[in-house]
Every structure is written in C-alpha cells, then in structure tokens.
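Narrative summary of target 7.
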Amino acid sequence: MSAVAQQVESVGVTAPHVIHSEWTKLRSVRSTLWSLFAAVAFTIGIAALACAVVNHHYPQMSPQDKADFHALEVNLAGVQLAQLAIGMLGVLVITAEYSTGMIRSSMSAVPTRLPVLWSKATVYGTATLTLMLPAVLIAFLVGQSIFSGRHIDVSFSDPGVARAVIGAALYLTVVGLFGLALGAIVRNTAGGLALFAGIMFVLPPLMNVLPTNWNNAVSPYLPLQAGEAIMSTTPGGHLAPWAGLGCFTLYTAIALVVAAFLLRTRDV
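Modeled conformation, tokenized:
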C-alpha cells in the first residue's frame, strides 16, 4: 500500500483526509508542476507576444481590420494553448494512478471509491482556478499596457471585459475537470488524451463536412465553442456567454457522473 493510502487509512476515511491525500499526490508529481507552469507561461507569454506583434503592425492594418479589432481577443490568445496543458494534465491526474497501479491502494484506503473521484476533482479544480485567475489577470494587464501606447487598449470596467477575463479562468478550470472526467472513464493515458483532443480540437473542424445549416445549428453547442463563448467580445453569438459556459459545465458534470458510475461498477 502506498504511503499516501496508509496515511488516509491510519487517520480514518473522512472527506478532509481524502482531499489532503489527493493534494499530496497532485503536488508531488513533477509533471503536475511542469504542466501548470506551462499553462501559466502560455497564458501570459503568448498574450504578451501576440499583443506586441499586433501593436507593431496596427498602423498598417486596413480600416476594416481596425474597425473589427478588439484588444481583448488578442489578449486572451494564450488561453488557446493553456487549455491544452490543463486538459491533458486533467487526464493524467487519474490515469497515471491506473498506469502505476497506485489506484488499487487508493481504493483500498477508501472502499466507497467515490470520495476519491470527488476529491481529485475538488483539488485539481481548485488548483487550476487558483493559478489561472491571476495568470489571466496578469496577461490582461501586460497586454493592455502594450496597447496603451497606441490608445487601443480597453479597461477592465468596460462592458464585457471583466466577464471575459474572469470567465477565461473559469473556462480553463472546467477544461481541466472535463479532462479528468474523460480520464476516469477511459482509465488509460493514451486513450484519455486522444479522447480529450478528439472532442475538443478534432471534432469542431469535422463539423464542416456537414451541410451548412446543420453545422451552424450544432457547432455552437460543442464543448469547445460553448465554453469559449464566455470569452466572446462581440455580441450576437449563438449562445450567450454564461449560457455557453453553463453548457460546457453541464457536459463536464455528465462526464463526471458517468465516471462515478463506472468507478462504482467496474473492477479497479
């Protein structure tokens, strides 16, 4: 039995003890630290780079491009890469235990099983939000300071800006939990990563093979498009920003329920 499982078993199985056990496992894995560091670096670094490039080329942009320009869209460019790191780590949070056999020790210490899944989701979701909220705020401040030289920056108090910036952190948190749920369903690292990438990044382009009216009707409700609606800076989208994030959160909740059911009914 692992040291973490022995620790939980020795003090009694309670929710705080299981959460502490999962936190110990999360922070003790080197890949966790690197993945979270990459997500933070992508969020801030890509945003700064994209804003600097656009700021440099802004005088050469056409009048139509300038009219369509919104500083916040460029500012949140790093989220596109950060979600890959966060989602993949979500898969690894649980599949790594299956690959090493450590999951048997965890389930032996917590025979009811479900507290392990809920604790993993709580710990990983909290860690992701705690890191990514400051990251997107820093990315916003850095990006707008770059744009301020040409007076094309936006203020945090402008309509929709606070919602988009804070929503980006919430979106990344849900992405991480979605990856965790898929990993718990598949229980295999390669399969979980493939399923996550397929749903989030492969399925949306494939929708283009459908008739246009079908594509337009279905695509806004896919996890990626629905979740990213919270960061939208232009009105008139198919889904309202909070409705889109709610739709993605519903997908994640359903995936977690399926994972919980399978955890209870399948052999470890």
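Residues 1-11 have pLDDT under 50 and may be disordered.
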